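haha ok so turns out i had the wrong file open the whole time. this is the CORRECT one, sorry everyone. sequence first:
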Amino acid sequence: MPEPVLLDRNGTIAYITLNRPERGNAIDVPLACALLEATTAVETDDGVRCVVLRANGPMFCVGGDVKGLYAAGDALATLLDDILAYLHPAIGRLASMNKPVISAIQGPSAGAGLGLAVVGDIALAEPTAHFTTAYSKIGLSPDGGTTWLLPKLVGLRRAQELSLTSCRVSADEAAAIGLITRVVPQGALAYEVDALAEELANSAVGALGRTKRLLLASAEAAFDEQLEAERENIVRQGSTSEGKSGVAAFIERRKPNFGASEAKQDR
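then structure:
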């Protein structure tokens, strides 16, 4: 059987690819386990400066493997717990890792697949992509981080509608409401993603990691707490070679050379 998740490298860019195209990249235990292994590998590899999450086939991810859930019968709850024991830590790593993550979305994303699609720091989609929470259609409550992500991305009121009705959202509407970053021309997804990944990988990854953490913490932090977090992070970043070289390059009117060794100091 082919591996359910592929991990490839192109220089400092890592590509994590969901690889169950014949099942719409539906999530079962092997896929969830492989995804956690892949996210752990890229998070801890200082040579990786940008991560792309993508999928093989015409669909991004249809969510949980409903056929497998049905086959579990009375053991449904146990199977769900087994899947999420791997899937949730994987999604958590994608959200919080100290390097940028790009989601490349084609076709439908549903259920936990929606969580995977929108957890990227930047989410690009083809015009044919569409999104739905889907849980209410099969009598289950949400998972995959969707109840945390959706209110922050689209607001509580829209998140309530999406979650309770399982309505379908087109790619254009998803971009308009902030669910994804933008829609790219049909057939241009790989090119657009590769160009963006190259740009991010060559930037100040340590600073980007701090920026990610600050943005994620902002919703729960009081304003004074966020100000203190900003102070602490910029002071620490100013002590790194990445921060010092970036300032020097600006004054000297040259392009900075941010290397993996500089990002490593930002752990």
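Residues 260-267 have pLDDT under 50 and may be disordered.
again sry for the mixup
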